[in-house]
Amino acid sequence: MNHAASSATRYRRWALWAALALGVITLIGWALRPRPIVVEVASVGTGRFEQVIEEDGQLRLKNRYVIAAPTLAELVRPTLKVGDAVRAGDVVATLTPVAPQMIDARTRSVLQQRVGSADAARLAASAQVNRLETALAQAGLEADRATKLARENFIAVSALDQTLLAQRSARQALDAGRAELRAAEYAQAEARAALARAEPGAGARTEGIWALKSPVDGRVIKLHLESAAPVTAGQPLLVVGDTAAVEAVIDVLSGEVQQIAPGAAVGLSLGGTAPAIVGRVARVEPVAFTKVSALGIEEQRVNVIVDLPAGAPGVGDGFRVDARIVVSSREGALLVPSAALVRDGEGWRVFEVEAGRARARTVTVQARHADTAWVSEGLREGEKVLLYPGSTVRDGQAVRVRE
After folding, report:
1. Which domain does 299 fall in, by range?
2. 290 and 357 part of one domain
């Protein structure tokens, strides 16, 4: 009995130690087993795929009109401000004659003497005209007398011809004298005008005012001068434009611009809570220019002009916009988030979630952009794919979808 009891006791001890060892081994195995990686997934779906070029640009008025000074003058202080509405024909700027220069006493004396000289020249020319008029009258009398005598054959025909030629010569001399008189009068007026500009005047001068008018309905876009000031001929005074007719200028890399066709849809975002605007490519300029990027790299870029719908809200000249130019599109395409794609040599693959494990699937990508890829083979609609798989995920890896 004692031997049987001792054996039973040893057996129970051995069973207890075996159970403890098995529990420890199980606990160690559970602790060391691979744990599922927490992942994010997205569903494969179908829809419209658009290949786009995303760039920024700015808005500008289609038509702007620079109103400039037509002559040297004084600008009257403008009453308009930037943003004021104007109608075609409204006066937008007023010019007055330039004030005469201040001169010294010597110059004023010279101008006065010049007026005196011009007066004397005019009197001499007038006296010369009077003398020539008298000579013409005398030549006329002699011509009449010679004509009567020649009719009665008292003088030769040659004598009559001489008197007629003398009369014609006197008439031509009178015409020349009158022309000299007119020249003397102009010289006199010029000298008096020069002296008048040098003499102090009484009261404000209002003659010669220029009223510049707006050529179109629109708004004042820019004021070059906001106060009264002297201006030169051709100097810009203000700019008027129609803020309802606006276009966008988007600069695109010259290597990408070949994909853009006139008429392509363009989504324009002004930022903030402003609604997006849909425009159309009007033209692609055939000239490129060099632009330095934010990284200091010189790039060749081309301006793409986009027409905006009339009366688009919240737009203005020079506003910055983010543009999304659609270069191609396809309806009913199988769409996968670009974040699910992983490079596989020259191709692509994704990780599909199947029964709690990640399964690598090779896919054929037709096109992609920053958000979405168009896949033609390798997946079906409704399947779940991992997002941002990284380098830690392997084929068959246990995963747990993040709630």
Report:
1. 47-60+244-401
2. yes
Residue 102 half-sphere exposure toward CB, CA atoms < 13 A: 0
Is 14 within the bounds of a domain? Answer: no
DSSP secondary structure string for all residues of 155-189: S-HHHHHHHHHHHHHHHHHHHHHHHHHHHHHHHHH
Secondary structure (3-state) at 158: helix
pLDDT tens-digit series, residues 225-278: 999 999 998 999 999 988 888 899 999 999 888 889 899 999 998 887 778 889
Rounded Cα–Cα distance for residues 93 and 69 (Å): 9
Tell me the C-alpha distance between 118 and 110, whole Å.
Answer: 12
Clarify whether residues 191 and 328 are in a common domain.
no
As a whole number of angstroms, the distance between CA 125 and CA 132 comes to 10
Q: Which residue type sits at 52? A: V
Q: Report the alpha-carbon distance of residue 164 to residue 109 in Å, rounded.
A: 50
39 confidence band (pLDDT: 50, 70, 90): confident
For residue 41, is it within any domain? no
Same domain, 184 and 254: no
pLDDT, the chain, mean: 84
Which residues are bridge partners to 354 per DSSP?
357
375 and 252, same domain (yes or no): yes
- Which residues does 63 contact at the CB level (< 8 Å), separation at least 6? 216, 241, 242, 245
Sheet holding 91-96, edge to edge: 210-213, 91-96, 73-75, 229-231
Amino acid 132 reads L
Predicted TM-score (pTM) of the model is 0.57
Task: Provide the pLDDT confidence category of residue 195 given band limits of 50, 70 and 90.
Answer: confident
Q: What is the DSSP letter of 276?
A: P
Residues 42-79: b if buried by 16+ CB within 10 A, e if exposed = eebeeeebbbbbebebebbbeebbebebeeebebbebe
